[in-house]
Every structure is written in C-alpha cells, then in structure tokens.
Amino acid sequence: MANFNTHFNVAFLASAALGVVVFKAGMLSPSLLIGCVAAGTIGGLLPDLDSDNSRPLDIGFNILAALAAFAMVVWFADRLVLWELVAAGVLGFMTIRYGVFTCFTWLTVHRGVMHSVPYVLMFGLISLYLAFYGLGLTAVDSWFVAAFISFGALIHLILDETYSVNLLNMTVKQSFGTALKLYKSTDWYWYLALYLCLLVGWYCAPDGTGFYYAITDLDAWRVLGQNLIR
C-alpha cells in the first residue's frame, strides 16, 4: 500500500486541482478554497487512523487530547482554583491520549471498516457537522468542506488499491480489494451500524439544497469554461 508521504502528496495535489476548478467556477471564496484544499489533504490521511502505528493516528489523538485538555480548562474555569484547573486539563489529556487511544486501537483493525466507501462518506458527514456547528460555517460552505474531506479519503482508498496491483508482473497482491469496498461479510455488524449512522446523519444534516444548486449551476460551469481560455 502507499506510504504516508504518498498519501499526503497525492491528496494535496488532487484536492488543490479540484479546488482550483471549483474556485474558477465561482463556487468558492479564496479563504474557503484554502480550507477545502486543507480538508482534502487531511481526508487523504484519515483512513489510516485504523493503523495502530500510523502517523495520522498519533497526530490526530495528540490534537484531540490537547483540545480535550483545553475544553476542560475552559469549562471549569469559573468553578475551580488554579491547581484544580491544571489537574482537570491533565486528566482530559491523559483520558483521550491514552485511555480512548487504547480502546480505539483495540477495536480497530488496519484495512478494516475505515478502509471502505461508507466510511469515506462518514468522514465527510462528521466534518459537515463539525464545520457547521463547531466552526459556524454556512450550510453551503460546510457541505463543500465535507465533500473535500470525502474526496481526499476516497483518493486514499484508490491509492491503496492501485498499490495492490503490480503492473510490471501483471500480478495482484493479497491486499487487493481490502480498501475500496462497500461491505465485508465478516464485519456485517460494523457495516450495519455504519449504514444506519449514515442514514440518520444524512437525515439530520444541515440543509444541502444550496450546495446542490451550487454544483449543478450551469452558469458557474460556463464561467469555468470561459476562464479556461482566458
């Protein structure tokens, strides 16, 4: 399968190319373009969160642990004295970085459920909620961020499948088909839960009508065509 640098570089280049296309069509502001390219690049690393020794996993849990520590301090700022705030922050960090991390690595298997098409959609759905409710972006902008996250994650799966094929010897490695999949019978309960979460998450998601109209606007694509020859 592709390594960290390959996933990072390809996800960045693919997201940047798509971002420029959408930007030239007038669908993204300059600041949102940067955010979407960053989202696509991050998405290109997310499927490897199921690898116990992956760099994205370590980076991701370090960030989550730091955010948890910060949240604990802010939440209890008016109710605890200084040493208690420090203890709360340390407790929040340790709980996420070592407690949740240990449970996560125990529950996940590399090239498991996270390396699948429905999980690509789940990454996008989670980022949609974070962008809309956490960052306060508009529904349209949040949908663009979610689309780029899923796009980057899909690029990751395609790369892994591509690296499973030896074109010179015309052979296929045993890992072929373990990344770009919709379902696996041995993990049916995980996939059932995943698809149910997708259905509920999609139903409760911020309104995507504006996003749909934006990407299907024929005038926007005419603008893109004009920009290609100017």
Features:
230 residues, mainly alpha, two-stranded antiparallel sheet, 9 helices
Question: Can you describe this structure in just a few lines?
Answer:
This protein is an all-alpha fold.
Report on this model:
This protein has 230 residues and is mostly helical. The protein has one domain. It is built from 9 helices and 2 strands. Strands 1-2 form a two-stranded antiparallel sheet. The chain is globular and about 65 Å long.
Write the layout of secondary structure elements.
Elements: H1 4-24, H2 30-43, H3 55-75, H4 82-107, H5 117-134, H6 139-162, E1 165-166, E2 171-172, H7 188-204, H8 209-215, H9 218-228
Helix pairs in contact: 1-2, 1-6, 2-6, 3-4, 5-6, 5-7, 6-8
- Sum up the overall morphology in one term: globular
According to DSSP, the number of beta strands is 2
Residue ranges: pLDDT <50 for 5 or more in a row? 165-172
Can you tell me the number of structural domains? 1
Order of helices and strands: HHHHHHEEHHH
Q: Count every helix, treating DSSP H or I runs of 4 or more residues as helices.
A: 9
Quaternary class: single chain
**Overall pLDDT confidence:** 81
Strand order of the biggest β-sheet: 1-2
Residue fraction in strands: under 5%
User: C-alpha Rg, in Å?
Assistant: 20 Å
The largest sheet, given as strand count, sense and whether it forms a barrel, is: 2 strands, antiparallel
Alpha-carbon distance between the two ends: 40 Å
User: What is the structural class?
Assistant: mainly alpha
* Helical content class: 55-70%
